[in-house]
Fold this sequence. Notes:
With 78 residues, the protein is α+β, with helices and mostly antiparallel strands. The chain has a single domain (2-77), classed as 3-Layer(aba) Sandwich (Aminopeptidase), CATH 3.40.630. It has 3 helices and 3 strands, in the order αβαββα. It has helices spanning 2-10, 25-33, 63-77; strands at 15-21, 37-46, 51-59. Strands 1-3-2 form a 3-stranded antiparallel beta sheet. A hairpin with a 4-residue loop joins strand 2 and strand 3.
Amino acid sequence: xxxxxxxxxxxxxxxxxxxxxxxxxxxxxxxxxxxxxxxxxxxxxxxxxxxxxxxxxxxxxxxxxxxxxxxxxxxxxx
Length: 78
């Protein structure tokens, strides 16, 4: 996933969107840990099970912001 996000950044994308099954909390947790936020729900999106989809978005951080965040955490560990 990080490779995908980096490639999107390289190509000039500012956001990444995805849908994840509402009955898959593990995947939702993974995406949230990467910075994705919930936008909404698509009712009955996955068929034939009629399972809702949670729509999520990531605002892609700039490389500078990513480095700044890493520098801060490196300082905090000292």
